[in-house]
Amino acid sequence: MKITDAKVFLGGPKKNYVTLKIITDEGIYGLGDATLNNRETLTAAYLQDYLVQCLIGKDPRNSEDLWQYFYRGAYFRRGPIAMAAFGAIDMALWDIKAKLAGLPLYQLFGGKSRDGCLVYAHATGSNLEVLLDSIEDYVQQGYQAVRVQCGIPGMPTHGYGVSEQDGLEKNFITDFSGSVPKEEIWDTDKYIRYMPEVFTRIRERFGDELKVLHDVHHRLLPREAAAFAKTLEPFNLYWLEDPTPAEDQAALRYVRQHSTIPLAIGEVFNSIYDCNKLIEEELIDFIRVAVTYAGGITHVKRIIDLAGLHHVRTGFHGAPSHSPISMAAQHHLNAWAPNFGIQEYLVLDTPECAALFPSEHKLVDGLFYVSDAPGLGVDFDETEALRYRYEQGFHPVTRLVDGTLWNY
Ligand code: KDG
Ligand code: MG
Predict the structure, then answer these.
(1) How many Å apart are CA 375 and CA 29, to the nearest integer?
(2) For residue 359, how far is its CA from the centre of ligand 2 (angstroms)?
(3) Residue pLDDT, tens place only, 215-270
(4) Could you confirm whether 160 is annotated as catalytic?
(5) Is 361 part of the annotated catalytic residue set?
(6) pLDDT tens for residues 267-279?
(7) I want to staple 289 with a disulfide (CB 3.0 to 4.6 A). Which of 101, 107, 294, 318 is the partner?
């Protein structure tokens, strides 16, 4: 069996998805997602200019050897662009392998450990009342877990995860309106003072059963994060995410020593070497890597296995930046992983998205069920793809009140 062609597509409904299609001489093809939010042309170019030609003529069943070829073969290793590019190749090869076997992908990992996998939605509000209504909306839809982000009174801009216009939560991360990023102002003291009130009101209204998550988005210093985590303990959060900048692994030790709040980190990690210490020293509770920019299924499966040895559960990244292809890869891993925790999930089932990426996967009452179609269970409609083209977008840039550049 041989790879005969590999095509890269860029574009999608309100998102610049980078989609890879690997075609074989037996007519079977595989799909991968190399979307790197707001840097999409780079992963597309990495694939097109450096990797695709190395695939032609190779046996697609040797996914491990091809992974090693691209990882060890690049002298300048790792980084989100390279890992996302060959992560997409890896996804496509697993897709082909499972289609060849005539099995849904999770069967190749060891079958299902559960039927429905818990997901969490994003509730957001420019103020607390709007946030409470947004949570109510998700609870009514059957969600059992919700991430909550709230506008802070007196904060000059809305803060991470809060849309400027209420109700637009699905797309606020990317701003398509200019040729440079917007700037936001962040006030740590106001944030730390206000958030306990937010969680008090959430527990009063929704009780103790609802799983409540919160994302700090790397904004706090280690000491601030440790003090904040202690303050939040009475609210029994499901997790506190990215309390400190992700590249400082020692910071998590400081937070851990001062609080028992569950910690989640890892959406910006792109290899096992970014998190092996955090896992082995049991400084975190959830690992949030993404199959997309952490090197595909082959590499993320290694991270899951290491995490399982240390009581760390999965909580994969699932922001709207991922296409339904990498989300499907994660859902198959979730169905299998003995140490599955939760999956971040933003509904992408607009008619446009469903037409571009047809699938039978489904969400019922806050649980995700993978379909039993062979492979990843997601297709890609090339004719639909012709409707879209690349549109430049940006994450905001964050400054402190005095103008100091801060972590987005
Ligand atoms: O591209 C960046 C987003 O994916 C990120 O800001 C989303 O923090 C995020 C989350 O938890 O989904
Ligand atoms: Mg996050």
Answers:
(1) 10
(2) 26
(3) 999 999 999 999 999 999 999 999 999 999 998 988 999 999 999 999 999 999 99
(4) yes
(5) no
(6) 999 999 999 999 9
(7) 294
